[in-house]
Amino acid sequence: IEIISTKDEL
Amino acid sequence: MNVFRLLGDMSHLLAILILLLKMWKTRSCAGISGKTQILFALVFTTRYLDLFSSFISIYNTTMKLFFIASSYFTIFLMYSKFKATYDSNHDSFRMEFLVVPVGGLAFLVNHEFLPLEILWTFSIYLESVAILPQLFMVSKTGEAETITSHYLFALGSYRLLYIFNWVYRYYFDGFFDLIAVVAGCVQTILYCDFFYLYITKVLKGKKLSLPA
């Protein structure tokens, strides 16, 4: 799985 | 932005508003853990440093600023304005027991070994356990005011809703952040016992009290 970080979340 | 994410954010916002309203209306912060509130201020401060480096949306920026400001305002109310009502004897959880291990873990397990990234990771890990002083306080006194239980329920629901949001994002956007998901699950699991008491007692009109 490609891991992308959730920086657009709060 | 999907519906779970939006509901999660609204639940988080509601929790903060309930807490501020409780303190403002009753002129008291009795039953609230100042340690947990300090940890939340630390969480928001270390996570939202990206306010200076990246812009996502007006919504995102506004919410971040509100979370930071409200967390420091809460600390001001607890440790200054309503200091006389702060129940420090029952707020005896040691913050360093959380901050030090979480800091170490953020250094060891992160997406990238960069200062902002480590601070972001630290904030994610710290948020997952920041409620412990509050839960410890409730278990120590054996009870919580109904308004405090509403606050805790809204605060716990927020991360649960975020888990649904991550499941949605995984399937529909191919989006997956292992650190956020694992920490979010830990955070939600910590609330399970409280959720059970909230549903079986508070929703039936009784005060949240623990068996002796």
TrEMBL record, chain B:
Against InterPro entries, the record matches this protein to:
ER_ret_rcpt
Q: Name one GO molecular function term.
A: ER retention sequence binding
The Gene Ontology biological process annotation of the record reads: protein retention in ER lumen; protein transport; vesicle-mediated transport
Gene Ontology CC: endoplasmic reticulum membrane
> Where exactly are the transmembrane stretches of this chain?
65-82, 119-138, 150-168, 174-199
Q: Which domain of life is it from?
A: Eukaryota
Q: Which Pfam families match?
A: ER_lumen_recept
Q: Which residues form a coiled coil?
A: none
Keywords linked to the UniProt accession? Endoplasmic reticulum, ER-Golgi transport, Membrane, Protein transport, Receptor, Transmembrane, Transmembrane helix, Transport
Topology of the protein relative to the lipid bilayer: Multi-pass membrane protein
| Main localization (coarse) | endoplasmic reticulum
Which cellular compartments is it found in?
Endoplasmic reticulum membrane
Q: Which family does it belong to?
A: Belongs to the ERD2 family.
The protein here is known as ER lumen protein-retaining receptor
Biological source species: Lottia gigantea (Giant owl limpet)
